[in-house]
Amino acid sequence: MIVSILSVLLFLVFAVLSGFHFYWIFGGTFGINKVIPTKEGATLNKQVIPPVATLVVALGLLFFGLLYLLKGGFIHIPLPNRVIAYGTWFVPSIFLLRAIGDFNYVGFFKKVRNTDFAKADSTLFSPLCLGIGASGFAIQLLDGI
Q1: Residue in 134, 3, 20 with CA at minimum distance from that of residue 71
Q2: What is the pTM of this model?
Q3: Which of 86, 91, 135, 140 has the fewest CB atoms lying closer than 10 Å?
């Protein structure tokens, strides 16, 4: 039961995150000033990230969400079992590492803390990544019980 709930929650989180990336691909600007790391005192060049990179992230996040629907048994797509098995260990690992950060611009241990991105990262992005990582690992551990 808990695995099912966490799987649906992770799918919803990934669907929303993917949706934001698709929104930005098609010219949306909401939140764009807070999602790209910058140096202190630097102004944001809105063309800094190519649309194809944003598309890759959007599709990747959508795939991560579908992976958790597969893991929870809500959908069935003919994928090798090892894709689901390794993927559902890989995804929370990525997000746990993202929460820890690069020790400069992102994560709980970043040095740059006074930019719009850094403030959003500290209050929203890093805690969200930690929650995704913890939920993903909980699914893995509880699924074996």
Answers
A1: 3
A2: 0.92
A3: 86
